[in-house]
Design goal:
Distance between the termini: 48 Å
Structural class: mainly alpha
Shape: globular
Order of helices and strands: HHHHHHHHHHHHH
Number of helices: 13
Amino acid sequence: MSKLAALDQLLEQYKQLEYHQDPILKQRLHEVQAWLKERISYTHYDYFHQAENKLMADYFLNRLYGGPDFDALAVQIERLLKYAHKAEKIIPENAIRTGLKSVGLALLAMQLDEEVAQQLLKDYPKDQILDDEMVRLTLIKLDQEQARYQQLDLLDDLGESLDKYMRSFIMHTAFKMCRGAARKYNFDLMYEFIGEGFVAMKPLKSAAKFIQAFTAEERRIVTDVHAGKPNPFRS
């Protein structure tokens, strides 16, 4: 069985997202994603701006929390699946395994954010500018508490995988050696998606510890939102 088989399932889930057929929903989704990235940047400002953390913070905001860039990545994933046998020879197995976790997290973020966007369109005018209170009330109505905890658990698991599989000199060397082949077969976006994780973790002593500090604060926010605490995003 192909090591990339799980990508096929992820791609199918991506295709089922409703915003592909609904431009109004797509716009609202992008606004939700922009709000979330701004909120995360605010919440973790001091932590993200520590010199050793900046690259991983960017990876979080631009890769793991979805966004329009995922659309282009999905197109390449579909192409990659047609040539899975070549891709598996090009990209090291542990890099594929960790890359799958990253793609899965990005997709989960999009699924949860699409639910938020759909509910916002039901409750507010489509052109109303998002604010914290709108999102807070929407999250409570959707009751995403357990799903958000699951998302954070998966992030913790990714951190452990990064430390376990992606720090070895041999892995780095093997991954660098396949850059040319990835470009030759037009797998460059997938290669970059995984490669940015390599680069981001390089300044860190432990990717797992970085992520655990992030998820601890995010769990506090999830708990405060669903406990009905006022201004949970800015405390």
